[in-house]
Amino acid sequence: MQQMSSAITLVAMLGAAPAAMASPPACGIDVVFEGCTEYVGIGLVSMEQARSHVPSAYTVVEAAGGALLVVRVSACEAVSVDGKRPKAGKVAQVGISVTGPDDSADINNYTLFYVTDSEQLKGALTAAGVSAVLASGLSYEFDALGGDFDSLVDTPQVPRVALSGSAVPPGEEEETRFVASWWTEGKRGPVRMRTVFPRIIFSDATVTLTTSAGSVLEDLVGSQPFEFVVLDSYNAFDIATMEVTGTHPSGSGAKGGAKKTACE
User: Fold this and answer.
1) pTM of the predicted model, to two decimals?
2) Residue 10 pLDDT more than 90?
């Protein structure tokens, strides 16, 4: 229940999204995730460092004098792209929270890294313009009896992301609807990955992050291990749907007005 309260507080803090969402172009991909658990951590990092990794078209959220680093890893029993045969899969995302651009979402993040062990998902995201990385060794381990949680992203294409700590299995806590939009400037233009969680259960976690020395991620987090002081949460959801479209709004959430997109 504590993490449910923290999530609601976070949504309230990020809820001021002034930009109006443009109609997505008639292209993109649809992904269904089923039977999933996830860890999500949000911590404070240097605003100066964060802005240096986020394009000027996006406005970085300011909180307590810093920016918000978002780290998410998820393991699902089934991942299906555009109705194809589902397979088990895992994803890892690292990003910076931004204001808007999707005012229908509870949180917007600019993507720094997207890693998956699903060839189907990686191929579809690459085709949509996302610089996704395929990592067969992406690990995600949770001991429901002891509460130990560990996850590791260790591939040459992105900085090492090692998460370690403890988590509480989601139980009978209240389910809630949540929407998250992750953005990236792909090779062919801006891309939005919008995921709707119709019924997600938030629970507690105490997890820290370590990363490669001299990496972009170390520049952001500074001293290690890095603690997630804003949100530290282990969650579960039966189903979520992700729509990937090449779209970018005009207005104050994205400076400079409408832009050409990957789908135009």
Assistant:
1) 0.86
2) no
